[in-house]
């Protein structure tokens, strides 16, 4: 019985250490406040690209919605810069997801992706779809990627 207790405490300590590493992992805003060049919607295993026509004020509207979202804060950039990156953490585990939005003329380009793991299970697409709906924009229906 004593060995089982020791094994249980070791497992619990390992979980606490891993969760601490996830929560406290250093973040360099320069590494995340970037956006690849894309011109159409795409869903992939770790996130989504979304391109929506918003007019020139789209990023300001997006900023208001993202800033009001639970567990979400501005990481880098600003509306004035034309590029802003937000970090949203999961409720229980604290996993960070990064969302970068850029105003490109009348289009808003949104790139949402995970930091840890291989699949976000559609969470980023659902979040961005919800944020765009709050802006009054109907996004492309979500589908899990084929890869």
Give a verbal description of the structure:
By secondary structure, the chain is α+β, with helices and mostly antiparallel strands. The protein has one domain: TATA-Binding Protein. Helix content is 34%, strand content 28%. The protein has a 6-stranded antiparallel sheet. The longest helix is centred in the first third of the chain and has 23 residues, at 2-24. The chain is elongated, with a radius of gyration of 18 Å. It starts with a helix and ends in a 13-residue tail after the last helix. This is DUF1499 domain-containing protein. It comes from Parasedimentitalea psychrophila.
Write out key terms for the chains shown.
DUF1499, elongated, TATA-Binding Protein, alpha+beta, 147 residues, DUF1499 domain-containing protein
What kind of oligomer do you see?
Answer: single chain
Range of strand content: 25-35%
Cα-to-Cα separation, first versus last residue: 45 Å
How do the strands of the widest beta sheet line up side by side?
1-2-6-5-4-3
Mean pLDDT: 89
Pattern of helices and strands:
HHEEHEEEEH
The main sheet comes to: 6 strands, antiparallel
CATH architecture name: 2-Layer Sandwich
The helix count comes to 4
- What general outline do the C-alpha atoms trace? elongated
CATH fold naming: TATA-Binding Protein
List the domain count as a whole number: 1
Short description:
The chain is an alpha+beta fold. It is 34% helix and 28% strand.
List the helices and strands and how they pair.
Blueprint: H1 2-24, H2 29-32, E1 42-44, E2 47-53, H3 58-68, E3 72-78, E4 83-89, E5 96-104, E6 107-114, H4 123-134
